[in-house]
Amino acid sequence: MKKIILLATAVFAAALLSIGCGETAANNSGATTNSNKAVNSAASNTAAPPAADSAAIQADIKKLVSDYAASTASNDAAAYDKVTTDNFMFVGNDGAVQTKAERVSAMKSGQTKYEKLTYDDVNVRVNPEGNGAVVIATATVKGLNSGKPIDSTVRVTQVWSKMKDGWKLASLQATDIAGKKADVPATADNKASAPAANK
To answer: How confident is the model over 119-176, as pLDDT tens digits?
Structure first.
């Protein structure tokens, strides 16, 4: 009888031990699965870059456009040099292309000199990564561009790039808006070609 009780106790203990180990293994397996899920979730969170704050970037770019207009209108070649990328390209309203070096040189020599430069209707589009932006605006400009007089309203397209040291202007193109050229004042040279007024 003692042997039967001892054998039954041993079987019962073995069964309990087996059940306990099975639950622990199951719990460990679940913990491993949960741990893997957490690692995979963390990996996928770090893989996707945070969304760019377009509104903040648009505000920054609009301020830069305003600062650019003010410094260019005051013919500040050093500021122009600082705000533009090394490979900056400018396309004037006459279709002429200038590099950054040519543009800065023309400003220093007085070949490019502005009396007025203002921007209106500034629209900014930011790329999804938040490191590039395109500006489309209108600009009223008066002065000299590469030695040629300019007095008109132009449509301007600017491309801005976020560099290590901040936002820089990478390219700018100006196109005359039809019917928006300023009136040319009458001079002795152009009076003869002007149509006679009806009396």
So the answer is: 999 999 999 999 999 999 999 999 999 889 999 999 999 999 999 999 999 999 999 9
pTM value? Answer: 0.66
How many folded domains does the chain comprise?
2
CATH number of domain containing 115: 3.10.450.50
CB-based burial, 126-140: b 16+ in 10 Å, e otherwise: beeebebbebebbbb
Contacts of 97 (CB under 8 A, 6+ apart): 89, 90, 91
DSSP-based three-state secondary structure for 74: coil
Separation CA 183–CA 179 (nearest Å): 10
